[in-house]
């Protein structure tokens, strides 16, 4: 078999065989197949698409290209949750303690923030002492003991995806549905959980800009997971507007704690409960409405909050920063942003708000960049709110006053004002099971 023939067959619109896909992934990870071959094949896939069978085979081959986590030592049903990425998206910090309080075993690998989107690992690291780099043995032990463990991606999990993703980034082949679906699902399958809920975002702050694309991606990922024997659900939710009000690492921990104490933004609570109830319905094999009641109870009676404290403590985090969020690291400068005109906010563009927060120091432009855990934005007003000129609409948190002016420009680019109250947009579009 020759990679040249595989590339030309895909270029000419033929369906690749399982053997050809296996040959490509194995050869590429081993280094026998070069980046220029892989780039040409990725572009042929980008232009011609993949059949469902090709996509499933590609996913399984990428999942098998490195370590496949064995969670069989954990008693109980293992559960995982994955978001396609967004701004202010701190739902992992709320969903995982809810479901763990209800008996699910959450063995989760999370990512770091990149570009305008945040990452759970960075948020957790803003808590003093929190360790995201546990050994595989401690990872399993912690899940067994507390019901949750969240760590960073291990070195050898789906290495084919790691290599291919960097190449896609450099060759304009990221935005291809079967490649995105197989990339995300290869990591989820390798991470080993039996039940998986996907939080698929659409809108300006998301990978998928439209509901239709988010729906197509969700259906593909759910199908792949089911074919691999996992129990799957995908929640399609809005990411045109940031979720909740805090954007930035320690600021998001504070908001998640607020939500776990039964307070906080209604949108954050709703998305978190929808995700948690879908996951619990898979874990316990019960109706989603029944699962919702259980999740609401765990959130409202404090058991999810207690579980969160247990989780932070088990991974070495300073729980005083949770019981008293004023003890979380704070930025030196808090700069208030005021409205320049009267009216209603008709749009709070998530991508631009995320970029403004990155400018203040909260995120990375390149993977190697360091971040300021204390930096970010608190939105005091969002889409649909009425404001008067001079009202405080946001707070910028930063340690470098030179960053305020450029962040402010991007922040105001994100906002659109109108005279009449705008219609509320849909927060949860659909659930696919
Ligand atoms: N996230 C991933 O992990 N892979 C993609 O291809 C896109 C988003």
How would you describe what is shown here?
Helix 5 (92-101) links the parallel strand 1 (78-83) and strand 2 (105-110). Strands 3-2-1-4-5-13 form a 6-stranded mixed sheet, with helices on both faces. Strands 6-9-11-7 form a 4-stranded antiparallel sheet. Strands 10-8-12 form a 3-stranded antiparallel sheet. Helix 5 crosses helix 12. The model has no long low-confidence stretch (mean pLDDT 95). The chain is built from 17 helices and 13 strands. It has 433 residues and is α/β, with parallel strands linked by helices.
Topology (SSEs and partners):
Layout: H1 3-11, H2 18-30, H3 35-48, H4 52-63, E1 78-83, H5 92-101, E2 105-110, H6 120-125, H7 136-146, E3 148-152, H8 159-170, H9 177-191, E4 195-202, H10 211-227, E5 231-238, E6 246-247, H11 249-260, H12 266-284, H13 288-300, H14 303-314, H15 320-323, E7 333-338, E8 343-348, H16 350-359, E9 376-379, E10 386-387, E11 392-398, H17 404-414, E12 415-418, E13 428-432
Parallel strand pairs: 1-2, 1-4, 2-3, 4-5
Antiparallel strand pairs: 5-13, 6-9, 7-11, 8-10, 8-12, 9-11
The structure holds uracil (URA).
Residues 165, 174, 179-180, 183-184, 207 line the site of uracil (URA).
Features:
433 residues; 6-stranded mixed beta sheet; 17 helices; binds uracil
Kindly summarize this structure in a few lines.
With about 425 residues, the chain is α/β, with parallel strands linked by helices. It has 17 helices and 13 strands. The strands form three sheets. A six-stranded mixed β-sheet has the order 3-2-1-4-5-13, sandwiched between helices.
